[in-house]
Amino acid sequence: MGDAAATTPNLDEVIEQQNLDALSKATICAILAPAGPERSRTLAMLYKDERTLRIETFTMLQKIYMERVVRAPEIQKFEEVLKPHQKAGTAEGLTVLQKAMIEHNLFAAAKMYNNITFQELGFFLHVEPEK
Fold first, then answer.
1. Per-residue confidence (pLDDT) for residue 7, from 0 to 100
2. Does pLDDT of 88 surpass 90?
3. How many C-beta neighbours within 10 Å does residue 89 have?
4. How far is CA 27 from CA 14, 34, 44, 96, 115, in A?
5. Which residue stretches of 1-117 are H helix?
6. Calpha distance 131→120 (Å, rounded)
7. Contact 129, 121 (CB under 8 A)
8. Residues β-bridged to residue 95
9. Tally of CA atoms within 13 A in the half-sphere of 71 that contains its CB
10. Strand, helix or coil for residue 89
């Protein structure tokens, strides 16, 4: 029995890992969700939970919550943790992630700039102005 007990994970560790996994999945869903008050409340709740410091997607959560512009390399890194169904396309011809990041970056850029043309904004956000 000693060998089995030594190789069996501690129940508390298993539960903690399951909680972190759930927080990670909740964070991904909140980041991909359409902008609005419900998303903002969810992001705030997740950001204020100290356990999210230990999840892989914390950096993206922090940028989104703090309303900072997310650059293309950061988006690509975040995309690596997404499941295939989270990379689905929308009617506009964008992926769910692309649409969420464009929305977010528009709001973030609006907080920084009062007067900016669509062409300048597109260049800044790495998005074609017509999108």
1. 61
2. no
3. 11
4. 20, 13, 10, 15, 32
5. 2-7, 11-32, 37-48, 58-65, 72-79, 96-112
6. 13
7. yes
8. 89
9. 1
10. strand
At residue 8, the pLDDT reads: 64
Structure tokens of 116?
Answer: 């900016």
CA distances from 20 to 15, 16, 83, 113 (A): 9, 6, 17, 37
3-state secondary structure of 21: helix
Closest C-alpha to 88, from 98, 102, 80, 78? 98
First-last CA distance in the chain: 63
Q: How confident is the model over 104-116, as pLDDT tens digits? A: 988 888 877 766 6
Higher pLDDT: 25 or 5? It is 25
Two structure tokens written together for 44: 């705030």
The answer to whether 105 and 70 are in contact (CB under 8 A) is yes
State both tokens at 84. 């295939």
pLDDT given at position 122: 74
Average confidence score pLDDT of the chain: 86
Residue 74 and residue 94 in contact, taking contact as beta carbons nearer than 8 Å: no
Model confidence pLDDT, tens digit, residues 68-86? 989 999 999 999 999 998 8
